[in-house]
Design brief:
2 copies of one chain form a homodimer. By secondary structure, chain A is an alpha/beta fold. The first copy, chain A, has 2 domains: 275 residues, Divalent-metal-dependent TIM barrel enzymes (TIM Barrel), CATH 3.20.20; 330 residues, 2,3-Dihydroxybiphenyl 1,2-Dioxygenase, domain 1 (Roll). The first copy, chain A, is built from 17 helices and 24 strands. In chain A, strand 19 and strand 20 form a beta hairpin. In chain A, helix 3 crosses helix 4 and helix 10 packs across helix 13.
Chain lengths: 650, 650
């Protein structure tokens, strides 16, 4: 598949955009007119630069408001087009995007439109240029790709064809199957964009909220499947207007964009595969035989295939001073499993939940509080770390190799968009990990205290990571494509410093649950977002027993206000003894049609805290109704700390 | 008018919110349930705190999903209500908001709904509580305030009344006139919120985009006029769900909120005044005589009245090192008018355009580059500075008195939300300013060089200020209410670092044009937003002559790329000689149905640059199509500066 991207997707100057596209490895780009008009580079400079950077200039865009106009305006439009065609020959470009008229169209007559488009095609032909005509979703008279293509067929000119843009088609819910009926030679260009499903006017939606494939909710693999079946072999080019991408780091956005096309290519191949099979199976008895598997001229590269991860292998917290972490883990019932043979790391376990304490200051250490504990890495159990790693590399995930000795297990690792390190580990059916043998003789914490029985089968239930606002969509695609996690509909949770957007990514069996939180802006400072607290949650069988043991060991629980328990009672009408237990132990509670959820939180250490949960029945959530309580209490603690610091230092 | 605010409008803990409401001077507050549930304060603490802070607790809210349910759910809902009524008696609150059912309603039967609401009212009565029933705009069966009130009338119980919320009524475009037909005693509560007109689903619109009155586009004065005419005398209380307010400084947001109610009160009085007259004039001959002016029990306080400002009196730029500024102003054709008798400021004039250079570092001087020139203050010509100042003070604008000697003109000044100082000056019909006599003997800049004839009638055309994202809506209300500027529909302009939202505030005669720009987030660092460049534009009669003179004096023009002029020609088909002049002098050009616009920009000094404009015909815009060119060139300069710094220092 030939990959492309429109310069309007990216931030910066035309030169910066072109360089970033080359680094990300695009085959070609679309030049957005405004990027050229505002550039000090001459058309000849741009042409040379593209050649030097090794990609083609595939599309000049857009030419707006051409068709359905009165004669005098048509003449002016043709004059304007002529100037642009001349510019394009200096650029060495042969295809121009012409959008259906939005602003100046006054005559709704397909015959007139066809004649006007014919005049444009004729003029284009004189300059050796092809015109790709596209129906904008909000075009005044033409807003449906089939209508646009009927016009192209009416004109029947070699220099006029169709441009298909997934946003304009899928935002209007047009049926994509008829794409297959279009003569491939008349599909001059294909643009792809994804988007979250929003119910708002389509123009605002298009101009601000488009995202790269895999970051939204459009059925893009199906769209592409039909395009491939039609026989199209040209560029598949991203045209994504997004307020965030327009202000984010250009090289990083270009890589995110390329990852989205690599993923889309794979998904399209899968859709074709699945759909060919369905087609055969669906043949009616007595009907025509299923056609032989059709070959499509577009070559779709596939990636190494991985299954969903089977679970968390470990979570790693970095801390320059590990004492507070050790205390909390011990109080929760974790056992100290010793230090690593060759590295400055400790292993703590509870059942199959493994926490590594890395005795280093977290990165970004110039920031205040950076030496405090922070989540640094997550390990995932996969079938084959080598295959999973190869896949991630092909998806342009930045590798983070970890030093190891000859006889130690080598982890394949990658940096996630928020800079958390993701390691791919060899899973085992019994939930153990071979590498724990690399840790020395365990020294037991809190001798004489029993590990609570509920803890023996403990696992990491979920991990909650804060995402910088510039990299939220990128993170969704990263975990979807590289780790085979499935994004769920997001929730919004109130906190005293603003709404927190909470995006769950999980495996179908829920063995891995990763929660990506988009913190309020004032809790982010652009470079270091971790003023927002992150956490690791462990699931146990008997939360009440776990909490009692932890209390005996002196754990500093997050203190839940009495008002919460009154409200809980008003909502659920709980058994008074049970309610008293919850309140006594600072436990939170939720219930829905599937089951019940009990959980508690520890006080925060650095930017990390821990949660212990018990899922009863088939409860599948995270106690979202309780999140505002947690946020409010944590906020209060933080402010008390801040004000006590102030009163001491001022 | 009794003022109120719901705690959900504000950031922080319940305690912080209550303190901020007291400082802003609200008469009462609504307690949002989640704020109480998440608070360590007991209901009794909250009650005492409110009494100590001097306001009442007017409404407990919300109680959701009560009506239109089957019997078993009704019983559970009544039990839940009973718990909340008991809680309210501990809080000393007597009114609860009950919203029409969204989630659990299954039976669409007004008779059943009335019986269920009657049961609730009866229970409320037992606790001495009143229930205010409100139709949510997205209520499943009840989403219209008239429907909600018909139910209240059917029930006819002293403890059941109506809550009117402007958002739920105006978002659905319900007619507000029938409010006058409601028996005032049955209107238990009135909530107000404004909103920008967005075409999106009403729930998302409501939960994220509400703003305070005067910051949106709803006809709130009319809504309130009908409420007052109905005879309602209870609290008028803000219920504003806004993503930005929820994360902004709580005390500041509370003051912004109070300002919006003070302004709404005045606008409501004006609407009543205007509408009473209209009503009389509209009486049909032979119909009943116009009613005598009706008196309404709600007392509406009025503010000192001011007309629109007549023009800019001056613009002030602060700079620790003034040399670069002096050079640019001199090159533009400004004359140096001497130094002030007692202050370290210089006066530069061109026609009636006056620029004060204040020889001080701009405030916030810890930030890098803070000593560089920045726009610090604007003076506006008003009829009466004293009256305008009194009005601004009543609108809670923070005063910034300026030191002055006995025989000097005293400016009344206020800090705008972005911290620009706004001074109210005595206007004069001939456009002169008396205070210039306080400046010493002029020393002429560039002796022997003529002031270009076009410059003799120069004025400040517009000023463009960057706004921090947390204070954008606040700024719109500030300039609307305190300075009588009118907000125009906003535009969005592309820049290499993201979209810039551009909001024009102007007088009806365009003598004052103030542009508020919301810069991309990465150009803001929360505390100091001025990495985004701001500018002052001067209008002259002959821009070409002004530009030629400036070039002779060596002005460093913002260099416009050649591609721009090619595109200009393609768009407008300009006379070749004129086009050559534009390109030779780095002039930009725009044209619309009303006229033409010529302009050029200087290079940036610190965070300030200057623009010279010529308006031909009735052109009323700002050359918005050219803004991306300016942004791109400025961005390029900034990056070249940054990278040349890098190459020297590394």
């Amino acid at each position: 598949m030939r990959t492309g991207i429109a310069t309007v997707c990216l931030s910066g100057t035309l030169k910066e955009k072109m360089q970033a596209c080359a680094i990300a490895g695009f085959d070609g780009i679309e030049i957005f007119e405004q990027d050229l008009v505002t550039s000090p580079l001459s058309p000849e400079d741009v042409r040379k630069m593209a050649a030097d950077l090794g990609f083609t200039l595939d599309l000049y865009q857009p030419f707006r408001d051409f068709d359905s106009v009165p004669e005098d305006l048509l003449a002016a439009n043709l004059r304007r087009a002529d100037a642009k065609f001349r510019l394009m020959s200096r650029l060495g470009m042969d295809t121009m995007l012409v959008c259906s008229n939005v602003a100046t169209a006054t005559i709704d007559d397909d015959g007139l439109r066809a004649r006007q488009l014919a005049a444009l095609a004729e003029l284009a032909g004189d300059h050796g240029v092809r015109v790709a005509y596209e129906a904008l979703a909000w075009g005044k008279y033409v807003n449906d790709y089939e209508h646009a293509h009927r016009l192209v067929e009416m004109v029947d000119h070699p220099n006029l064809g169709t441009c298909l843009d997934s946003f304009h088609i899928l935002s209007r819910d047009w049926d994509t199957a008829p794409i297959e009926d279009i003569n491939a030679e008349k599909i001059f260009f294909v643009q792809v964009a994804d988007a979250p499903k929003l119910s708002m006017d389509v123009l605002s939606w298009s101009r601000h909220y488009r995202v790269f494939p895999g970051e939204g909710q459009f059925e893009l693999a199906k769209f592409m499947g039909h395009v491939v079946r039609a026989g199209y072999t040209g560029p598949v080019s991203l045209e994504v207007f997004n307020d965030v991408f327009r202000q984010s780091d250009v090289e990083r956005t270009a890589v995110d964009a390329m990852r989205s096309l690599i993923w889309l290519e794979e998904q399209s191949a899968k859709w074709l595969e699945a759909n060919a099979a369905n087609g055969a199976a669906g043949t009616v008895a007595g009907g025509p035989p299923a056609p032989a598997r059709r070959r499509y001229p577009m070559e779709l590269t596939t990636l190494p295939q991985v299954a969903e991860p089977a679970g968390f292998n470990f979570a790693e917290v970095k801390a320059a001073d590990t004492a507070a972490l050790e205390t909390v883990l011990g109080q929760l019932g974790f056992e100290f499993n010793g230090r690593h043979r060759t590295k400055d790391v400790q292993l703590w376990t509870m059942g199959h939940a493994r926490v590594i304490i890395n005795e280093q200051a977290p990165s970004g250490s110039a920031a205040p509080g950076a030496a405090a504990p922070a989540i640094a890495a997550l390990g995932f159990d996969v079938d084959s770390p080598v295959i999973a790693s190869a896949r991630a590399q092909q998806l342009k995930a930045p590798a983070v190799p970890r030093k190891s000795q000859a006889n130690e297990e080598v982890f394949q690792g990658f940096a996630a968009p928020d800079s958390t390190e993701i390691f791919l580990c060899q899973g085992s059916p019994d939930g153990t990990a071979a590498w724990i043998n690399e840790f020395g003789e365990p020294r037991w914490f809190g001798e004489g205290l029993e590990v609570p029985s509920g803890g023996r089968s403990a696992v990491i239930d979920h991990v909650n990571l804060a995402q910088p606002w510039q990299h939220f969509d990128e993170a969704v695609l990263f975990y979807t494509s590289a780790l085979a996690l499935e994004p769920q509909p997001y929730a919004e949770v109130a906190s005293p410093s603003g709404l927190v957007r909470s995006q769950v990514m999980q495996t179908s069996d829920r063995a891995v649950r990763l929660v990506l939180n988009l913190a309020p802006l004032l809790q982010q400072d652009g470079t270091r977002h971790k003023t927002y607290q992150e956490h690791i949650a462990f699931a146990v069988d008997d939360l009440v027993a776990t909490a009692r043991s932890a209390r005996e060991r002196g754990l500093n629980f997050l203190q839940i206000p009495a008002n919460y328990y009154e409200d809980l009672d008003a909502r659920f009408g709980l058994d008074p003894a049970f309610l008293a237990t919850l309140q006594e132990l600072n436990l939170l509670y939720d219930r829905d049609g599937d089951g019940e959820f009990l959980h508690f939180y520890t006080a925060t250490v650095g930017s990390v805290f821990f949660e212990m949960v018990e899922r009863r029945g088939s409860y599948d959530g995270y106690g979202a109704p309780n999140a505002p309580v947690r946020h409010a209490v944590q906020y209060d603690h933080l402010h008390q700390l801040t004000s006590s610091t102030h009163s001491t230092t001022h």
